[in-house]
């Protein structure tokens, strides 16, 4: 061994000092950004994203639109658990293709029972079941015109770029109905399975984790969704650098339905072949 070689302990000390310097640099950058922007998320590029908390008031009248019975608690459990008395939950399809081992008729009955049990637990302002055929929402375009969107202050919808074709159809037809009715409600997409590229809003559900799991468990034949949903919520919490105490967060994406900038057809062209290869049962869940 050459005399010029540093001792192993010396190398460790040097490494430790270097790591401390790097950590201090990152910490300074974070503190600076928080002071400057009040940011919740600091991207590695230095770009700052600010997410606003959604707050419910006593004056709110809320609608949660679920393409399938279970989407309401997978994506918008915070609304159900924090403002049930002001919330109408409207499920569009009968969920009849949710379990390939059962007949369509039998599965529709089971999904309805599960949804009713969940609603009996949360006691929303109203619960509605449109009973349209699962996996075929696109063929019932315009069905959401029967929902009166004009009285709502906040409307929660599935994401128009969701992986599931029913979710995309539900989002698009609801946005059309809301526009036609000239509703002034604030509209938000909620997140299921496929993460948003750029969430704008959040609700901390750390204290509601157990209750969210309870709601999902009403839908006994969709149990694989529980960990998928909560993992996404944990990932979102990890992004909230101003709130290290958050463990579970639901994120939402504010949508201006009058801007007409959502074009799921474009998404279909972009992703449909990939979706079909990677998730062949997309049409059936
Ligand atoms: Zn769904």
Provide an overview of this structure.
This protein is α/β, with parallel strands linked by helices and about 280 residues long. It has one domain (about 30-280): Rossmann fold (3-Layer(aba) Sandwich). The chain has 7 helices and 10 strands. A hairpin with a 5-residue loop joins strand 1 (about 40) and strand 2. It is globular. Residues about 1-10 and about 20-40 have low confidence and may be disordered. The structure holds zinc ion. Zinc ion binds near residues 67, 68 and 164.
Task: Compile the SSE list and pairings.
Elements: H1 8-37, E1 41-42, E2 48-49, E3 52-53, E4 62-66, H2 71-82, E5 87-93, H3 104-122, E6 126-132, E7 154-158, H4 165-180, E8 186-190, E9 201-204, H5 209-217, H6 224-238, E10 249-255, H7 264-278
Parallel strand pairs: 3-9, 4-5, 4-7, 5-6, 7-8
Antiparallel strand pairs: 1-2, 8-10, 9-10
What is the percent of helical residues? 40-55%
Mean pLDDT: 83
Largest sheet, spatial ordering of strands: 3-9-10-8-7-4-5-6
CATH superfamily: LmbE-like
Q: Please report the first level of CATH classification, the CATH class.
A: Alpha Beta
Low-confidence stretches: 1-9, 22-38
For this structure, the quaternary state is: single chain
CATH topology title? Rossmann fold
Give the N-to-C terminal Cα separation. Answer: 65 Å
Number of strands: 10
**Architecture (CATH level 2) name:** 3-Layer(aba) Sandwich
Q: What is the number of helical segments per DSSP (H or I, 4+ residues)?
A: 7
Bound molecules: zinc ion
Instruction: Output the structural class.
Output: alpha/beta
Percentage beta strand: 15-25%
What composes the largest sheet? 8 strands, mixed
How many structural domains are formed by the residues?
A: 1
Q: Which overall shape is indicated by the principal axes computed on the Cα atoms?
A: globular
Spatial extent as radius of gyration: 22 Å
What is the N-to-C order of secondary-structure elements (H for helix, E for strand)?
A: HEEEEHEHEEHEEHHEH
